[in-house]
Amino acid sequence: MSTNNSSIVSKRSVERLYSNDNEHQFLRYFVRKPQRRSPIINRGYWLRMQAVEYVVHSFLRAELPVPKKKVVVNLGCGYDPLPFQCLSRAEFGNSDVLFVDIDYPNLMNIKASIVSATKQLSSLLKESQYFETPSDQVHFQSKEYLALGCDLRDLKNLQKIFERHGLQDCAVLFTAEVSLTYMDCESVDALIKWAASFPDARFSILEQFLPSGAEHPFARTMIKHFNSLNTSLQSISTYPLLQDQVNRYSSRGWKSVDACDLLAFWLNQISNEEKERIEKVEGFDEWEEFWLFCQHYFILYAHNGSGTASNVFRKDNTAWNGGEYCNFPTRPVIHRTPSSEDSRVDYEVHAEFVSSPYLKRRFAAVAKNSEGCLVLHGGQGPTTRMRSSVLITNLDRSDGLPGDSGSPSQRMCHTLTTLSPGVLLLAGGRTSPDKPLSDAYIFEYKNRKWRRVQDMPSGRYRHNTVALDEKRVLVFGGRGENNTTIGEWLLWSEIDGWKVLPTIVSPGPVARHSAGMCWTDRNHGVLAGGMNASGHVIDDMWRIELVKDTDNQPAVSAKWSMVNMLSNRSLWKRFGGHMVYIGLGRCLYVGGVSGDGLMKSENEVIECHCDKVTIRPIELGIPLETQPLLIGHTVEYVNYQLLICGGGGVCFSFGSCFNDGVWVLSEGKIEDSWKVAEEGQGIDGSAASNGICAPFEDNLQLPDAIPRDIKKVTISTKQEFEEIVEASEPVLMESVDLGNCVESWTPEYLKQTVGQDRSVVVHAAESSAMSFQHKNFSYKTTSFGDFIDAAFESPNSRLYFRSLSVTKPNSAPAALAEDFPTLAPDFVLPSALTMAIEHQHSSPLRISSAGVGMWVHYDGMANVLCHIRGRKLFRLYPPSDVTRLSFPHGASTSTIRDIFASPSPPGTTPIDIEMKPGDVLFIPPLWLHAAKPLTPCVAVNVFFRSLKQGSYAHGKDVYGNRDMAAYEKGRGQLAKIVKDFKDLPSQVRGFYLERLATELKEAAVSREER
C-alpha cells in the first residue's frame, strides 16, 4: 500500500505536467493533494508509463487471426487508472475489451468506491454495479471493467474467478508494473507458469533488475531504499540479469519472450518529436541519472497466443540506437559493452579513499594549481548549487583558500583549466538547465583572488576546455540556450578574448556535450564520446590540432582517429566521463555513462594509447562494496596519481549517492597523504590565511587573537539602557526577571501549550556546526511535539528551530505574541528595556538541541537575546574583525564552518560567554556572533531599530539581517565603477581600482578617527 501511495503521487505529478492538451487527467480522482516531483522522478515515471501503455496499446490495436474478446489484467494494479485512460480514447472506446484490476481487498475497496462516486470515471462504463460489500471478491463490475480484491498467491482462487467470468478462452494480456517484485519469488514463478497455461495469453512486466550486480552504487541505493520501507525486492537476487528474466519466462511455458531495458525503450521507441515535446515541459539536465535509472529497469513481453510475434521492442530491419536487449528464441543479442579480459593493462592499480564532507558535491570543476595541489570550485551540493572552492593538497601547509576571494557565482557543469602554475581559467556553467552562463574568470593563487575576464560569445555548460599553452585555452561543444547542443570551437587568450575558430577538415566532430577531451604533450588533443543533439551517445574519437587557415588565422583540424577501427570502440561510447593525459601518449577516460547497457565497473576507466592505437580497460582495485558512482565527478592527474574528486548523483526516487571525498589511484604504492579544506579554512581546520579578506593588510603579520571579557551590568532605568545602546558595545545582564518563562518553559509545558500536532519547519543539521554558506542542513517539516522530544531527549538530533511569522512567513518578521499567543504571556521584558519594546522589529522564538552550532553572522538590527532554558556558548567579534572572518562580499554570513572548532583567526578580538537561564545579552548592530548550545536551549530574541530613521534598507527584512541602505546602494555604485574599467587592460584596470580602494580605506579610517 505504501509503495502504491508514493507511486501514484509521482504519476499524478507526471500527468499534470506531461499530458497532452487533449488527454483527460484521471489520476486527479485518486490523488487529492498533488505534489510536484523533481525532474528526474517525473521523467522516469513518464517513461515507465509510456512503456506500459506501449505494450497495452499494441495489444489492443493488434488484429487477431480469430476475432475474440480481449482482456487486460492488471496484476497489483494499485490506483492505476489504465482502464479509464484506454476507454477514453476514441480508438479503444468501442472495442470488445474487458479491463480487470486485481489487488488486495482493502485497496480495491477504496478504488471501487472512488470509481463509483466519480462521474468522470463511472460514465465511461456501462451496466455498472458497485459492491460496497464484495460479492465473490468483486468490488465493481461493468461491461468493460472488473475490480477484484484477492491474493495473487492463491492461484486456485484466481483460476475459479477467471472461469466464473469466462476469461480463460479470451485473448488475455497480463500486465504488472513494479508490483510482483514485492511478492516472494516462488509465488511469482508459480503465477507466471499459471498465466502461461492460458491458450491465448501474453504477459508484460516492468520492474527493476541488476545489470551490474547488487554492488553497483545505483543498485546499492535502490536496494537500501526498498529495504528501509520493509518492501524489499524479492525476485531481484534470483533473477538479477535481463537474460535471467527472459529464462524465467521461457522455462515456465512461454513460447517467445522479448525484453529490453528502459534505455533501449527510450532510444528506440520514443520518437524524436515526443522527446522534443517533453524537453519543453520543465528544465532537465539529469541525463546521467536518467540513463542509470533506465539501465536498472526493464520491460518484458512474453507471448503464447495468436496474432503478432513477440518481438515488440526490436523490429526487424530497423536501426538499433542503444540499450540492452534479450529475447527467446534467441536472435542476435544487443547488450552491455563487454569487457576485454585479454587486453587489460598489465600493471596493478593501488587505490586509497580520502573522505571529506567538503566534497559532497557533483558537477563541480577542478584544476591543478601546482604539482601537489588542486582547486575545486562550485558544483551541486546536497541542497543547493555552490560557489565556494575547495583546496585538495598533499603538501605540508596550513593555509587554505580565504573565504572572500571574489569567487564566481553559484554554478555547476562549468570548467576550470590550468594555464600555468597558480593561474586557472573558469568558464561558463549553469544555474538552472535553462540558464547557461557565459562569464569567465581567472584565479591567481598567488593573490588568492578571482578576477573576471571577457565573457564567452554565448552561455554554455557541459563543454570541454583544454589549455594549449600558458596563454591560450581551446573550448568545444556544450549545451546552450534553448537546450541547443553546440558544435563550435572557441579560442581564448587574455589579450584577444574569445574567437570562434573554423574547422579546416570536413566533416568534423558533430555537435555534442558531456564529451571527454584532453591535450597531450605532442601538440595535439583527443576528443571522444559525448551526447549529440538527438540525445544519442557518440562512440567516435578524434585527433585535434590547432593549425593556420589560408588567411594565416588559427583554425581547428579534427581528424578521425584510427582508434575508431578497433573492435572494442564501444568502450568509449559514453558521456559524462572525463579525460586526462598521463604522458607517453596515453590518455585515461574516467567514468560516465554508457550509451548501451549499464557500463561494467571494470570498464569505467580505460586507457587509450594514441601512438599504439590501443584501448584497454583498467582494473581500479576498489572493492565492489565501496565502488564510487562515477558521474558528476571531476578528475585530475597529479604526481603520477589519478585523483577522482566528489561526484555521485540522485538515484531516481531512492535517494542520493555522493562520493564525498577523493579517490587516489596510482600504479605504485601511495605514499602521499592528501588533505582537503574548504574556502575559509586552513588544511588543519583553522581559518584560512586572510590576506584576501584584508586587502589593505597584505604585508602585515597579524597577531594571534586577543580574547576579551564581556562587560556585565545591572540596569534599572530606561536611560541606562539607552546609554548602553548609544555606546554600541555588547553587555550581559544577569538574572533578569523575564516573567514565568524561565521556570515554566519545560519540554512538557511547551508541548502542552503550543500543541503537540502543530506543524513546524526546523533545521536538520548534517554536523555539529551549521553553515549557511555551505548549506550543510536541510529544512524538515515535523510536528512540534516530535521536534521537542527529539531536541531534548536525543543527544545527536542536531535540530534547530527559529520561528517565522505564522501568517506571512516569507514577508513579515516573527512576533512572539502573534505566532505563539499561548506562550507569549509568560515572557516579559523588564521596563528598563522599553527602547527595545517601542522600536521592536521582531521577536522570534529559538529552540535547539545540544551541540548544533549557529554560523558566524551579523545583523543590521540591534537585539537583546533573552536566554530562557539550557546553557549556551556564545561568541562575539567587533565589526572591525569582519575582514578577518571570511565574509564574502555582500554576505552577512561567514564561510567558516565551525568557529568553535579552533582558535579564533589571527588579528581578531573574540568575546566568549556561557549563557544561562535569565541572562540577557545586548548585541549591537553589525557585531559578528555565533552560538553553540551545550544543552538543549530555549531563547527569545527581540530585534529593534537603534539607528535613525532612513538608515535601514527599504523593503522587507524578515530576519532583521539586511545591510544598511547606504551599503546596499554603495555596492551597486561599486559594480558600476568596476564595469567602467572592464575594457581596459588588466594592468591599467588594477592600477586604478587599487587607488580607489586605498581612498575608500582612508575615508573609513578618517571617519573612525573623527
Which key terms come to mind for this protein?
1010 residues; alpha+beta; ten-stranded mixed β-sheet; 21 helices; 52 strands; 27% strand; disordered C terminus
Topology:
Blueprint: H1 2-18, H2 39-61, E1 70-75, H3 82-87, H4 90-93, E2 97-103, H5 105-117, H6 119-122, E3 129-135, E4 138-141, E5 145-149, H7 155-164, E6 171-177, H8 185-196, E7 201-208, H9 217-228, H10 242-250, E8 256-261, H11 262-269, H12 272-279, H13 287-295, E9 297-303, E10 325-328, E11 350-355, E12 365-370, E13 373-380, E14 385-393, E15 415-420, E16 423-427, E17 440-444, E18 449-453, E19 464-467, E20 472-476, E21 489-493, E22 497-501, E23 516-519, E24 525-528, E25 541-548, E26 554-560, E27 574-575, E28 578-583, E29 586-590, E30 593-594, E31 605-609, E32 614-617, E33 634-638, E34 641-645, E35 648-650, E36 656-658, E37 661-666, E38 675-678, E39 711-713, H14 718-727, E40 731-733, H15 741-744, H16 747-754, E41 759-765, E42 777-783, H17 784-793, E43 799-802, H18 816-819, H19 834-838, E44 840-842, E45 845-848, E46 854-857, E47 862-869, E48 872-877, E49 911-915, E50 920-923, E51 928-933, E52 937-944, H20 965-980, H21 986-1009
Parallel strand pairs: 1-2, 1-6, 2-5, 6-7, 39-40
Antiparallel strand pairs: 3-4, 4-5, 7-9, 8-9, 8-10, 11-37, 12-13, 13-14, 14-38, 15-16, 16-17, 17-18, 19-20, 20-21, 21-22, 23-24, 24-25, 25-26, 27-30, 28-29, 29-31, 31-32, 33-34, 34-37, 35-36, 40-50, 41-42, 41-43, 43-45, 44-52, 45-52, 46-51, 47-50, 47-52, 48-49, 48-51
